[in-house]
Write a structure and sequence with these properties.
The structure is a single chain. Strands 2, 4, 5, 6, 9, 10 and 11 form a seven-stranded mixed β-sheet that branches. The protein has a four-stranded antiparallel β-sheet with strand order 1-3-8-7, with no helix packed on it. Strand 5 and strand 6 form a beta hairpin. The protein is built from no helices and eleven strands. It has about 130 residues and is mainly beta. It is elongated, with a radius of gyration of 15 Å.
Length: about 130
């Protein structure tokens, strides 16, 4: 059973920092591209950042460039999202998305498919 699990959320004061981690476990073929999304109450889920399977490629929403850093050690699990200089506007549930190739019923592989974590709450107080 494939699982994607985020951790590292919490309550932090404005100007503070947090680091989130995301681990994909279970039967998968190779490392996965991973992305971070967030959803505040009453809003749509939005893209935050992503890192390629080997860590060489990183991508950011304009709103977080310069403050957030997504990284992983080469092609390894987990991936991380370092968030600095936090403001209350980034308060949301943060979700990790992993793009995975998984076993099919014939002994082969299927995918890539998207798997989501359960989310971790990030709250920034003013």
């Amino acid at each position: 059973q494939v699982q994607v699990v985020e951790s590292g959320g919490g309550l932090v004061q404005s100007g503070g920092s947090l680091i989130l981690s995301c681990v994909a476990s279970g039967p998968t073929f190779g490392p996965a591209a991973m992305g971070w999304f967030r959803q505040a109450p009453g809003t749509e889920r939005e893209f935050v950042a992503a890192v390629s399977w080997n860590g060489a490629g990183t991508y950011y929403a304009d709103s977080v460039k310069g403050r957030f850093t997504v990284f992983r050690e080469s092609h390894k699990n987990p991936a991380f999202l370092q968030m600095n200089n936090l403001t209350p506007t980034v308060t949301a549930v943060y979700y990790c998305e992993a793009v995975l190739i998984t076993p099919d019923d014939t002994g082969g592989w299927t995918g890539p498919s998207i798997y989501w974590g359960q989310g971790t709450q990030v709250t920034v107080s003013s």
